Amino acid sequence: MPLAGYRGRCDGQGMSTTDQPSTDVPSTRAQRSADPTLGVVSRPAWRDDSVSLLTRGYRFGDRIWQRVPRGARSAPMRLLFSDALLVRGAEGVAAFYDNDRVARHGAMPPFIQETLFGHDSVHSLDGDEHRHRKASFVSALYEDEQVGRLRPHLEREWRHEVDAWIAGGERSAYDAAVGALGRAIMRWAGLPGTGDAKTRWAERQAQIVDGFGVPYSPEYLLAALNRRWSDRHAERLIQAVRSGRLDAHPGTALNAWAWHRDREGRLLTARLAGIELQNSFRPMIAVARFTAFAAKRLEEHPEWRKRIAAEVAERASLVDGPLATAFAQEIRRASPFVPMLPAFATEDIEVDGRTVRAGGRIVLDILGTDTDDRSWEDAGSFDPERFVGVDDYEAIAAFVPHGGADVATSHRCPGEKLAIAGLAASISAMSDPRVTILPAGLEVDERRMPTKPRSGGRVRAAGSGDARCPFHRA
């Protein structure tokens, strides 16, 4: 079905009508000469934009786009002491994911790569080496049968959290999602241990996600410590499987990474296999941040909460509801996990009249693409209706909350289907009429990366009120 809220084609070709020249962008010679940003990007070293990224966070791109005419697809900038080109829209996505001219290795700042993704993980690879390792991720995460294996775990864990809220529990939507999604995905991955043990590891993984983007804070140090603990624990699991002390069922992520071999036929080191095992299940735990945003939007849009509650009652399931899925997609569009992604240009790359030389950075504006006025109708409005009936979301060129291009051959996250299923189940659970979402604490600090509503989305049993002192609310 065509996507009502998208301005480009949705025909499975991954292209957009925004590929056509825009009347917003200078096209005549006189106009081009009047725009000093056209041509080869070259900015003075003292005009580096890196500090602005740390101080402005998700609003980082706003300042950069002020340098160019309205509607431009590229803007000059300087990032980490090298010239860079910020790009957006279908044109920007096509350029950023051109694997013949763009490389990822070394582009991500080390403090992010080492803490969030792990040393030598698939995120830092290019070419044949990337495609070979990515194939194991696609097999273990992306295939429809893998999503099917996750569904009963999501149903059970979110039913547990709803029951806890009804019984008087006070966990935020974010904390409940860390537990529910963490236990579900770890059981899906074939990991051993009790539910409590899985919850504790999920909390460590969630803190890694929470702290990786604030290197100037104690949270980053804690994230590094949790990363070290998690790497050791995952390494021991891989060693236990290889030694025969732990059974890893075929088809699980644990089995896939315990026995994955590189292009030369060698097993990965147990440490690296453990890192990729974590990269198979941690993205689901990161969905807890989307869940917190979903709590905010459900509180703001009670009509959608009622519609989703009716859908759950009719289907007798929290999983895979079409309305909950549409709501999840709009959450991902409006509140992407990170504002931008960097890569290196291995050749000169031109986008919309501006060129970054080989060796410079090309930076995809994730938020600017997902909320681009030229790509989306009424882009600034939160409207899940735009995704109702839309199944082939991968064909939408300007929809990149989990990356763009082809899952198998490029850098789109293979766990995207799992993430959507997890988020939709979260939304269905929070729409239960027996619970309510409190409006206090739903403001968002857009300077922090990653961010979420301050309270995490406080959920309580319906009719229970808020017994806390009004002067000491979280």
TrEMBL record:
Q: What GO molecular function annotations does the UniProt record carry, in alphabetical order?
A: heme binding; iron ion binding; monooxygenase activity; oxidoreductase activity, acting on paired donors, with incorporation or reduction of molecular oxygen
Q: Which residues form the signal peptide?
A: none
Q: Biased composition, Low complexity: where in the chain?
A: 454-468
**Cofactor(s) needed for function:** heme
One Pfam family from the UniProt entry? p450
Query: What Gene Ontology terms for biological process does this UniProt record contain?
Result: sterol metabolic process
Where composition is biased (Polar residues), the residues are 14-31
Transmembrane regions listed in the UniProt entry: none
- Name-wise, this protein is Cytochrome P450
- Keyword match Electron transport: no
Q: Which family does it belong to?
A: Belongs to the cytochrome P450 family.
Task: List the source organism.
Answer: Microbacterium oleivorans
Per UniProt, which keywords does this protein have? Heme, Iron, Metal-binding, Monooxygenase, Oxidoreductase
- Origin: domain of life: Bacteria
In the UniProt record, does the keyword Membrane occur? no
Matching InterPro entries? Cyt_P450 (IPR001128), Cyt_P450_sf (IPR036396)
Segments carrying the region annotation (Disordered) are: 1-37, 448-474
